[in-house]
Amino acid sequence: MSIDWTPLADLIETHDRFLLTTHVRPDGDALGSEVGMAGLLRQRGKDVRVVNSSRTPPRYDFLDPQEDFFEHFGSLANPADLADREVAIILDLSAWSQLGDMADLIRDFKGPRVVIDHHVSQDDLGALFLKDTTAEATGTLVVQATKALGGTFTKEVATGLLTAIAMDTGWFHHPNTKPSTLRTVADLVEAGAPINEIYSQLFERSSLGRLRLMGETLTGLKTVAGGRIAYATVTRDSVERSGAIPQDTEDLVDFTVSLKGVEVGMLFFEQSRGGIKLSLRSRQGMDCARLAGLFGGGGHRAAAGATLPDPLDESIERVLAAVQQTLNIA
What is the homologous superfamily of the domain 6-203 according to CATH? Predict the structure, then answer.
């Protein structure tokens, strides 16, 4: 699917002050895409602020070595500070619920809103949608925009965009990895992205708390339906007991589908502010986005998520019933 980037080019030509934001609990695709888009805009002489509702996870601090790129809404930025922004660009999401504390600001934003995303699910954000659900990552779309608009892949930009693509393809082993993915990555490496260093930063700097949480989570892994379904839970107590932080739960759901014979894997995370964050993965074709949609969430066919209002035990029961029905398990 080809995107016409002309509307974005027109906005860049006619406006000077841009606001970038992404979803709550930002991952590598979200943050790396922000790095890439900010680079493109700043090359055009634009004033750019990158403000997110969640703090940047320590895992991604290498994308902001001076600690002055990503701003946290509520502590480093507030609505009054951002009143001068002329265009808002929303990256890697298409749902109001995923904006977190930034949602009200975006609803009230007076200027043009642009969404650059690759997820299937979509709310009416009152925005210009530049979207391709066949893209493996939003970072891929920012690569395309940079090329279409004559931007330069500096080392910083290339590092952000390679991080984006690498994380949303599971370091190039998920089914969404295509020949074009690897060609794009080769271009980014040639532009200066240090692929070995990026891997080390992402996967070889786990905190003791994360490793302890990982061990406890895997110890509690359960299977049902003859091993076709696997799920694990992370409670507030387990996070505190292990010395981990909520961001340390990223990627834990992938272990649920690493077990032989598992078709659907789930992680239920008890959030500190209430509610259960559900993460879904499939390996045999079940549509995770469709299933997540039953609970007000969304995502991709092989990976999706939702936030559930019920307590942990009730959430597990509801989701397991839906998964078994989807798989036609009596």
Answer: inorganic pyrophosphatase (n-terminal core) (3.90.1640.10)
All residues at 6 or more sequence positions from 49 whose CB lies less than 8 Å from its CB, including other chains: 18, 19, 20, 71, 77, 82, 85
- What is the DSSP secondary-structure string of 254-302? GGGGSSTT-SEEEEEEE-TTSSEEEEEEESSS--HHHHHHTTT-EE-SS
Question: Where exactly are the structural domains of the chain?
Answer: 6-203, 208-326
Contact (CB, 8 A) for 145 and 116: yes
Work out whether strand 128-131 and strand 222-224 pair parallel, antiparallel, or are unpaired.
unpaired
| C-alpha span between 190 and 170 (Å, rounded) | 21
For residue 284, what are its two tokens? 């045999």
pLDDT-derived band at 298, boundaries 50, 70, 90: confident
Kindly report the pTM of this predicted structure: 0.91
Question: Looking at the predicted structure, is the pLDDT value of residue 76 above 80?
Answer: no
Q: In this model, does residue 284 exceed pLDDT 90?
A: no
Query: Residue 273: pLDDT band by 50, 70, 90 thresholds?
Result: confident
Helices within the chain (DSSP H only) = 6-14, 28-43, 103-108, 138-148, 155-168, 179-190, 195-203, 208-219, 236-242, 288-293, 312-326
pLDDT tens digit string along 104-135?
999 999 999 999 999 987 888 999 999 999 99
Q: Is the dihedral of CA 302, 181, 186, 5 positive or negative?
A: negative
- Identify the H or E element spanning 113: strand 113-117
Pairing of β 298-299 and β 303-308? antiparallel
- Which CATH code fits 208-326? 3.10.310.30
Which tens digit of pLDDT belongs to each residue from 18-45? Answer: 999 999 999 999 999 999 999 999 999 9
